[in-house]
Amino acid sequence: MSVIAAGRLMAMPLLCLMLLAGPGAQAAPEAPRAFSDAYQGVKYELDAETAKRGGDIYAATCGACHDKGLNRAPQKGMLSLMTPESIHRALTEGVMRAQATGLTGPDKVAVAEFIAGRKFGDTDTAGPLMCAAGTSVFDFGEPPPYAGWGLTPASSHAISTEDAGIDRVNLGKLTLKWSLAFPNAIRARSQPTLAGGAIFVGSHDGTVFALDRETGCTRWQFHASAEVRTGIVVSPWEAGDTTARPLVYFGDLIGNVYAVDAVTGMRIWKTRADPHASATITAAPVLHGEALYVAVSSLEEGRSSNPTYECCTFRGSLIAYDARTGKRQWQTFMTEQPVQQGVNAVGARRFGPSGVALWNSPSVDEKRGRLYIASGDNYSSPTTDLSDAIVAFDMKSGRIVWSFQALEGDAWNGACDNIDKTNCPEENGPDYDFGAGTVLATASDGRDYVLAGQKSGILYAINPETGKLVWETKVGRGGVVAGIHFGLAAWGDTVFVPVSDAPDGRTYGEAARPGVYALDIKTGNYLWKAPAVDICNGKPFCHPGYGGTITATPELLFAGSNDGHLRAFDTKSGKILWDYDTVRDFESVNGAPARGGSMGGGAGPIIWRGSLIMNSGYGFVGAMGGNVLMVFTVD
User: Fold this and answer.
1) Three-state DSSP class for 84?
2) What are the CA-CA distances from residue 88 to residues 35, 102, 371 (Å)?
3) Domain containing 81 — which CATH number?
4) pLDDT one-digit tens code per residue, 334-359
5) Bridging pattern class, strands 576-581 and 489-491
6) DSSP alpha helices (H): ranges in 461-553?
7) Of residues 448 and 278, which shows the higher confidence score?
8) Which of 97, 490, 503, 573 is 20 to 30 A off residue 4, Cα-Cα?
9) How many CB atoms are located within 10 Å of the residue 108 CB?
10) CA distance linking residue 234 with residue 13, whole number of Å
11) Are residues 264 and 356 in the same domain?
12) Same domain, residue pair 64 and 175
């Protein structure tokens, strides 16, 4: 399953996927507006001819989604926050270029200016605040404190209290130190990382930043070809080795993988993970030894809403690269090569098997030399054995060692939620693939467990030796944007499980159970439950529950919510000990309008030596948008 499928953007016409927009231009503002003013639709003057032409195109291709209340469509008020340059680049060279093939060059300019509400060059978005020469230098005495997106090779999403520097005693002293407004952005979903005295983070407009951790000034910025929503990974080095040349790894929305010099921001290598036109990188790469492992996902499910589209030909894969050179070492596909399976009702060819995208990062089993990853559903019939499954790979060869299929016969694409269901496979879901990354945990009984959470709301514990099920517990109601969406963290004998259970337009036979839950790793029994309280009070795109990545210490569990609150829970009781509402305007260090929103996806809280770092504004799958990176400290 792709990230589009994760949010079920349904069968949106041309610009209904505009939140996938690629990189845009940056310029300093003359008079920065508050983000909330822009959110309410404040616009600059646009001449009548452009407004009419762009408005007509918008009405014909976008209005059905954005103006008629389809809650999974990007909000038009949020789209107006983008610069016309950013929107135009998405139409011409970004992820929307295929959908925009029917528009002429002037059409694309007109609709971009109409949506943004201003002409090219009339931008109100500040660029980064660049560090003054000599004021922020790379600290070779500070290698990255984490192994990668999962914080540890086993992807525990956990850190010791000593390293965190935040505990039950000083938690109440957490205050906001500084915040950054991501330029040309209306969502924030790249997990930051730390190294060399810097914060490395990607953004909606395709920029990767190296930010001074103390001040928020920008050491360097790198412009990728499209949005960087993956977490950022930095290669380790020996502390104090000034000859080291660490690299920064990430992927972009249109399927490119990058290695960039961590000191200078210069590109070392770039490669396209898969030649398929809809390939994308959702998960953060995993660096282990000399190998970089990249999971490949897809946007094809959304394209399948068009009945004339020949659905479907993408197949997910896991790739191993030489981390220094970018040379591919192996690639293992999750289905056989798709072949024609006849034609659909309008005569377009059908292909299958397809899908089984990988949109989470694998955990590393150093003892057994394996990687564990959980997979997505099939896009078209026939269904296959590796869909909706937990899969073990040999790290050196890419050979599949074992697989556990949690759900058979799950084939789904965007046509299934469309009025025209021509391309919907006969199985029609239920679309319960795995979004949350696996965790390899060792409990006090000495046994190892592979833990995996599914959108069905079920948490599984698998024997890593055999691939056999140890236990399963249904924690959430589940749904297409619900259940266990991206999270999981483990410490000691406890696995922490965030549940989204956001509304998705479907009717279920059980009540939603959004919240955070703690289970015993050995048995799957509950240790405590912390159901979410609905505080949204009718606020648009606001829902209770936790759809993102979480981070644990022995004392505290940090989780960002769909409702825009960043909270810390007591790991022993589930009691909320700290609560910060991010849905507000921020005064950013770069002077641009900044505001928080929902928190979700693969971006989790980063904690280190008394600092808490988190971005806010998921702005996707019916969630509140935003564009802020926040740095809190207990100093």
Assistant:
1) helix
2) 21, 14, 40
3) 1.10.760
4) 999 999 999 999 999 999 999 999 99
5) unpaired
6) none
7) 448
8) 490
9) 22
10) 38
11) yes
12) no
**Is the per-residue pLDDT at 472 higher than 60?**
yes
Q: Give the integer Cα–Cα distance in Å for 571 and 491.
A: 9
Q: What is the distance between the alpha carbons of residues 221 and 228, in angstroms, rounded to a whole number? A: 13
Residue 280, beta-bridge partner list: 297
Joined tokens for residue 323:
């981390």
Asked whether residue 108 falls in the same domain as residue 165, the answer is: no
Torsion of CA 211, 74, 92, 318, to 10 degrees: 70
- Check whether 288 has a pLDDT greater than 50: yes
- Residues contacting 82, CB < 8 A, separation 6+: 21, 24, 115, 116, 184, 185, 186
pTM higher than 0.85:
yes
Across the chain, what does the average pLDDT equal?
Answer: 88
Give the CA count within 13 Å in the CB-facing half-sphere of 557: 30
Neighbours of 635 (CB within 10 A): 11
What single DSSP character describes residue 429?
A: B
| Residue 422 sits in the same domain as residue 512 | yes
d(Cα 290, Cα 175) in Å, to the nearest integer?
A: 39
In this model, does residue 32 exceed pLDDT 70? no
Domain shared by 94 and 192, yes or no = no
- Measure the CA–CA gap between 255 and 132, rounded to whole angstroms: 34
Domain presence at residue 151: no
Please tell me the number of Cα atoms within 13 Å of 25 on its side-chain side: 14
Q: Could you tell me if residue 43 is inside a domain?
A: yes
Domain that holds residue 184: 161-633
CB neighbour list of residue 340: distance below 8 Å, 6 or more residues apart: 349, 350, 351
Q: What is the b/e burial string over 553-562, where b = at least 16 CB atoms within 10 angstroms of the residue's CB? A: bbbbbbbbbb
Q: Is residue 454 part of a domain?
A: yes
Q: Assess if residue 282 is contained within a domain.
A: yes
> Maximum CA pair distance of the chain?
72
Backbone phi, psi, residue 502, to 5°:
-70, 155
- Of 19-33, 98-112, 146-160, 166-180, minimum mean pLDDT range: 19-33
Closest by CA position to 601, among listed 6, 189, 5: 189
Tokens 């914060």, located at residue? 199
Which backbone phi and psi does 58 adopt, to 5 degrees?
-60, -45
Q: Report strand pairing: 233-234 vs 218-223.
A: unpaired
> What is the C-alpha separation between 166 and 462, in angstroms, rounded?
32
How far apart, in whole angstroms, are the C-alpha atoms of residue 112 and residue 89?
9
Report residue 69 as tokens.
Answer: 């209340």
Q: Which two tokens stand for residue 432?
A: 């319960």
